[in-house]
Amino acid sequence: MSTNYIIAIPFFVLAVVFLFLGIRQRNQVFLPLGLGFMLTAVINGVVGYSIS
Hints:
Blueprint lengths: L2 H23 L4 H22 L1
Helix pairs in contact: 1-2
C-alpha cells in the first residue's frame, strides 16, 4: 500500500464529515470544503493506484 493510499483514507473520511455537516447544518462553507477534500482523496487514490 503506497503512501498516497494511506493519505487518501483520512481525506475521504474528512470529506464525508464535511459533506454531512454541509447538508445537515446548511452551512455554505462545509459543502465546497467537503467537495475539495473528496477531490483530493480521489486524486491521491488514483496516484497511489498508478504507482503501485
